Amino acid sequence: MPPSFPNGFLWGTATAAHQVEGNNVNNDWWAFEHDPARGVREPSGDACDQYHRFRDDIELVADLGLRVYRLSIEWSRIEPVEGEFSVAVLDHYRRVLDTCHQHAVLPCVTFHHFTTPRWATDDGGWEQPAIVDRFTRFCERTVAHLGDLIAIANTINEPNIVSLMGWLVGAFPPGRHDLGLYATVNEHLKAAHVRAYETLKAGPGDFPAGSAIAMGDWWIEPGPDSDETLTRTRDMHERQHLEAARAGDFVGVQAYSRTRLSAAGLPLGPEPGRRVVESMGYEFWPDALEVAVRYAAEVTGLPVIVTENGIGTHDDAERIEYTTGALRGLARCIADGVDVRGYFHWSLLDNFEWALGYEPTFGLVAVDRTTQARTPKPSARWLGDLARANAVP
Ligand code: BGC
Asked: For labelling alongside 250, which of 158, 242, 338, 379 has CA 20 to 30 A away?
């Protein structure tokens, strides 16, 4: 099989603290998922107990033949009360990162993956400008402790989903529907990314850092307004955050599906008759990755890392089919000269899929939630083999 990816291309997999660690009781998500009025399917509970089982999981990543493990550190554990930092928790994450290096796995560390400490959200959270200084201080203190062990850093995971789901759709904390606040929150998220990037680069260690933006393929119903709707939609959901991401050494692209809108910009849902990823309610659309990578590269002018891509399915053969399609699109981008440095599959483990609980299963590895036993699926071995070959069939 001829290599479709450049030498040194980084193959990896990803998780996020709240989705796998378990018992992150001190953040806004824990509060949200325990409020029956919010409609979260089930609480995160012990999740995959990765806080205690990280050694097993890192060993798994290494055994599969993947070189990067993207994980996030939990702000609400590190700074449980404003200005009070836990050295014991920071040391825990040093052990996590050390374990990665012992297994020749490069740790990609995300500083904010959807969760914010309760002390910050009780005091206005992302709606107030103070969050920018607060997040910067957290980054400064944390990189001082961990920077020498970081291989790649992500500042904020999907700032555009934080604002969209939290302040427009209302399915993530704080569960609002407020266009004005949505715009304010976006400004704070963009500013926080830029300050975090500068702070991480000024700390110890020498690693590339960047943002990770949720992207997709937009289909707009043909009509006199469709071009304008496409531009407006992309500006609002993607472009403003991609422009902020220019403060970065790379741009992280995360893509899963496509979204169909009427010419006026209203959501249409999946095209009738099209295959749907049942657990997520969106279309099976591997081509989203190619579209997203090209657009992110064009807007930012930066190298791209695919920091997430995957599928929440109970049919593991479908995971392989989806990922093959997505990687073929990625190989086309590379063949056309787009500078793509890596691909991190979401996710290593079946884990807590936010408002949808444990129903969607994105993992390369199944997790028995009673015994916490991990069982690699055929797709895990398949991706490991593909990584070794550095080529997609
Ligand atoms: C998020 C992950 C999530 C995944 C699958 C991304 O939006 O960063 O936390 O689990 O998509 O839905």
From this structure: 379
CATH number at residue 152: 3.20.20.80
Ligand 1 centre distance from Cα of residue 263 (Å): 27
State how far the Cα of 302 lies from the Cα of 271, in Å rounded to an integer.
33
Ligand 1 shell residues, CB under 6 Å = 16, 19, 157-158, 161, 214, 254, 308, 346, 353, 362
* Amino acid present at 149: L
Residue 347, preceding peptide bond in cis (omega within 30° of 0): yes
Atom of ligand 1 nearest to the CA of 157: 8
Q: Which tens digit of pLDDT belongs to each residue from 179-209? A: 999 999 999 999 999 999 999 999 999 999 9
Query: Per the structure, how many domains does the chain have?
Result: 1
Cα of 342 from ligand 1 centre, angstroms:
18
In a domain, 1, yes or no: no
CA–centroid distance, 282 to ligand 1, in Å, is 13
Q: Is residue 5 part of a domain?
A: no
- 2 pLDDT higher than 80: no
Q: Which domain holds residue 157?
A: 10-389
Structure tokens at 297: 């590269």
The number of CA neighbours under 13 Å toward the Cβ of 56 is 16
> From the CA of 384, how far away is ligand 1's center (Å)?
21
Backbone angles phi, psi at 374, to 5 degrees: -100, 135
Mean pLDDT of 48-52: 98
- Tell me the pTM: 0.98
Q: Which ligand 1 atom lies nearest to the CA of residue 354?
A: 10
In a domain, 57, yes or no: yes
Pocket test for ligand 1, best of 20, 238, 354, 361 (most atoms within 8 A of CB): 354
Q: Tell me, yes or no, whether 372 lies in a domain.
A: yes
Work out the average pLDDT over 214-223: 96
What is the helix (H) or strand (E) element at residue 192, kind and residue range? helix 179-202
Q: What distances in angstroms separate CA 58 from CA 101, 201, 215, 366, one per listed residue?
A: 10, 26, 28, 15
* pLDDT tens column, 106-118: 999 999 999 999 9
